[in-house]
Amino acid sequence: MALTLAWPAMSEPLKIETILGPPWGFLASDGQATGMMYEISNRIAEEAGLSYTNALVPYARTAIDIENGSADFIVRFGNEQMTRGAVPVAAVLTMPIIVVGPSGTQYRHLSELHGKTVGMIRTSKYVEQFDTNTAIQKYAVSDYTTMARMLALRRLDAGIGSSAGLYYGAYMAGVKPEELGAPLVLGSNEFILFLSKKNAQPETIRALKDAVKKLIASGEIKQIVGKYTMP
Questions:
Q1: Is residue 3 pLDDT above 70, yes or no?
Q2: Are 2-94+190-227 and 95-188 equal in CATH topology?
Q3: Domain 2-94+190-227 classification at class level
Q4: Domain ranges in the chain?
Q5: Radius of gyration over alpha carbons of the chain, in Å?
Q6: What is this structure's pTM?
Q7: What is the pLDDT of residues 22-72, one digit of tens each?
Q8: At CB < 8 A and 24+ separation, what contacts does 139-143 make?
C-alpha cells in the first residue's frame, strides 16, 4: 500500500535522467552505465522503494524533458527552466564552483576574466557573480571532457564548473593536472533532486525526500562522491 501511494502508476517505473558526461553519468569500459549522479539517483529510488529506469542524457536536454514530463527525476543544478518545470525535492550535495585556466595561469579575481573566453557547460548556472557578468565571453561546451581538452590546447582562457566535474572530466580526457592552472574558488552550488511537475505527487515527494535524508545521514552519498573525486 505504501508503494502504491508513493507512485500511483506502478506499471510505469520512475523515469530518471542522469547528465551525460563524466563524472555524472557515462559508459564504463565494460559498456555499462555508471557515474556519480547515476549511482546516487539509483540509490535514492531504491531507498524510496520505487522501480525506475535511468537514462544518460545531455545536460541541456534534461531540463526540457523534465518540463514536458517525458522524464520524472534528475539530480542537477537549477536554472530558470527547472524552476518552471520541476519541484525541488531535496538538496543532495553541495560542491565548490571553480575557475581554472591552462597551465601557468592563476586567476585571483573574477575581474581578471573580463574580455576573456571562459568555457561553461551549455545552459548551466553556477554562481550569480559569474552568471550575470556580461564582460566575460562565455563559450558553451557539452561536457567537462571537452572543456578540459580545450583548456589543455589553450583554446579557452579558462573554464568554470564544479570542482569534481572539472577535474574528473580532465582525468577522463587524459589531461594531466600540470596542464591546468591554479583554481579560483567562486563559491558553491547545490545539486538538487528535481521532480517533474507533470508527475509530482505529495507521496512521491515525501518518499524521495526521506530517501535523500537517510542516504546523507548514513554517509552513502558521500562514499559514492568519493569514488569520483580526484585526489
A1: no
A2: yes
A3: alpha beta
A4: 2-94+190-227, 95-188
A5: 18
A6: 0.86
A7: 999 999 999 999 999 999 999 999 999 999 999 999 998 999 999 999 999
A8: 142/21, 142/58, 142/59, 143/20, 143/21, 143/22, 143/59, 143/169
Nearest to 134 by CA among 149, 110, 114, 120: 114
**Which CATH number is associated with domain 95-188?**
3.40.190.10
Q: Which three cell numbers stand for residue 124?
A: 548551466
| Secondary structure of 144-198 as H, E, C letters | HHHHHHHHHCCCCCEEEEEHHHHHHHHHHHCCCHHHECECEEEEEEEEEEEEECC
Per the structure block, which three cell numbers stand in for 138? 562565455
d(CA 212, CA 159): 30
